[in-house]
Amino acid sequence: MALSVLSGLLLASAPITPIVVAADGVLCDITRTLAGKSAKVECLIPPGADPHTLALRPTDRRALQQARLVLINGYNLTPALKRIATSAPVVAVAERAVPKASTADPHVWHDPNQASAMVATGAQALTPIVSPQERAALNRRRVAMTSVLQALQQWTGRQIESVPKPQRVLVTEHRAFSAFGRRYGVRELPVIDSYATGGILRPASLRAITEAIRQSGSKAIFAEALPPSKTLRRISRSSGLPIAKQALFADGQAPGKSLIQTATSNVCTFVLAQGGRCNQQAAAELQTRWAAIR
C-alpha cells in the first residue's frame, strides 16, 4: 500500500512536458532544435507545404487548444493563423525579431542574421514554459544555433562572391527572397509580382517581363516548385532563358531537410545556375554542426 501511494506521489510530482505549436515558416526546425527534450513541439505545416494556403485540420485545432505556447512567423505569412482559438500566448516570431521588415515579403529567415534573431526570440518565448532545470541547456542550444547561422552567413557570402556581378540576379515568379537579396547584394526580380496585374499574365505583361529578364543579366529563371508552372514555362520560352534544374524553397523547409540544408541547397542552386561555384563539403559541415545541437 505504501509503495503504491509513493508511486502515485512521484507520478503526480513529475513535470509535465509542455506542448509548443510552431506553426509556419522554418519555426518547426528552430523550435525543435531550441527545445530539445524540454518541450513537445507540434508543427502545423509540413516541409514543402505552402503556408499561404494553410487550412487548419481538427488535429491542428486540438494541438492549439493544448499548447502552452504558439509560435507563428507573422507578417501574414499564414493568413489562416490570424485568428486562432487558443488560450496560449501567440508570438509572431519574425515580427518581433525583425520589426522593420517589409510586409510585402514575410520570408525574413533567408538572411541568416535575421534567422539568428528569430532563434533569440524563440528562446525568449520558450524560457518561461520550460522547467528551471532546462533553462541553461536551452540557452546553450541558442548559442550553438547562433554560431552555426553566423557560419552560414559567411559561407553564403563566399559562394555569392563566386558569381560574376552581372549575374547576381534572382529571377522568380513571386517576391520571397528580399531579405536574401539585401544581405548579399543580389537583385531580386519577381516578375509576376512586378509586372502582372492581379497575377494574370496578359500579352503586355509577358512583353514587359521578357524585356526585363533579357536586360537583367541572369542566366536562368528560378522556379519555386518542380515541375515549373505553365506560366513560368511560357516566360522561359518568351525570354529564351532556361529554368534552373533545381527549385528554390521559398516558403519554408525542403522535405526531409533542416533549415541549414534548405538554405545551403537554395544557395547552391542559385550560384551554380549563375556561373558560380558551391562548396558542398563546407555546406555539409554546417549541417553536421546543426544536427549535433542537443
| CATH fold assignment of the largest domain | Rossmann fold
The first-to-last residue Cα distance is: 40 Å
Tell me the structural class: alpha/beta
Instruction: Return the average pLDDT rounded to an integer.
Output: 92
Q: What string gives the helices and strands in order?
A: HEHEHEEHHHEHEHHHHH
Strand order of the largest sheet: 2-1-3-4
Task: Please tell me about this protein's structure.
There is one protein chain. With 294 residues, the chain is an alpha/beta fold. It has two domains: 17-157, Nitrogenase molybdenum iron protein domain (Rossmann fold); 163-291, 3-Layer(aba) Sandwich (Rossmann fold). 48% of the residues lie in helices and 8% in strands. It has a four-stranded parallel sheet, with helices on both faces. Strands 5-6 form a two-stranded parallel sheet. Helix 7 links the parallel strand 5 (169-172) and strand 6 (187-190). Helix 6 runs antiparallel to helix 12 (280-291). The longest helix is centred in the middle third of the chain and has 27 residues, at 135-161. The radius of gyration is 21 Å and the shape is globular. The chain starts with a helix and ends with a helix. 43% of the residues are buried. Mean pLDDT is 92; it is low at 5-14.
